[in-house]
Amino acid sequence: MSSTEPRLTALDALHRSLGATMTDFAGWDMPLRYGSERDEHNAVRTKAGLFDLSHMGEITVTGPQAAALLNFALVGNIASVGVGRARYTMICREDGGILDDLIVYRLAETEAGSSEYMVVANASNAQVVLDALVERSAGFDAEVRDDRDAYALIAVQGPESPGILKSLTDADLDGLKYYAGLPGTVAGVPALIARTGYTGEDGFELFVQPEHAVELWQALTKAGEGAGLVPCGLSCRDTLRLEAGMPLYGHELSTDLTPFDAGLGRVVKFEKDGDFVGRTALEAAAERAASAPPRVLVGLVAEGRRVPRAGYAVVADGQVIGEVTSGAPSPTLGKPIAMAYVDAAHSAPGTAGVGVDIRGSHEPYEVVALPFYKRQK
Fold first, then answer.
1. Is residue 275 exposed (0-12), middle (13-18) or buried (19+ Cβ within 10 Å)?
2. Residue 2 — very low, low, confident or very high, per pLDDT cuts 50/70/90?
């Protein structure tokens, strides 16, 4: 296979049999949609949706000093994560720029004092994260392993997802908190069952061996028939995460920004033991953010029908005051929405006179606090 050909997930043939529109995403051939993006989006908000996320990058870190390595390599306090729990964190450069945002699962602890963690990176950054972790592991009694080919990842998201999954597993889903994961079997398939997601809804992500992916997908599809479960592509995943105010690497996050610039300084744990990559630069960034943040990430809701796109200028009083990072029609709000970095002076919810330059026309937008949508628990 030439390096230019997209990688295929274990579910590729199944997606095509369902009539999916496929797209290249971070070097993978992935389903963009199966039918209507709006219908898929609404199914996740009201019932349930099924996603193939096998393009995500799994990296296993094991050894007596696995926790110490991750504390040094990442900005979060990974040593304090309990077995069976997960944490949202970031990996930064020495200058504080964000290399990627990650979820780290603490999978196991042996009697000999060795720990096992799984780091899940974005598909577009998996190699960068792997290389950084390998480089930063020098001097630690820990092993970093590329496990991208060892897992397929299937997500079931939406209010009906607990009921659908319960019919297929003996695992204690009621006891499984948000940002936790436990080993179990689903439809007879061994899986890591994680209560995580990127949609703003309750849901689960199931890490399984690739050879079990089709069997699991089909079992979930059958179990969800009466509950309104539909297969969902990356397009509605993007509108779901946008409504939920969740950042996407390459849009709201980049090496040009620190976690403090992105309004996510809370993930940086200065109080943890020992040094970590980027600490000095991030301490300076925290001070800057506390005194006078240059730009702030806000939500924008359109007063008209025109959709803002990433890179469009945000304007006020004839001046450029920011830039759209993500924009799309919101099926839940029924109008176009966007996330944008804007000058702090224009960042308060309700700020008047803010617009987006859409092909030379300044369309009016309302500044709102993120997220646009929060599920009722």
1. exposed
2. low
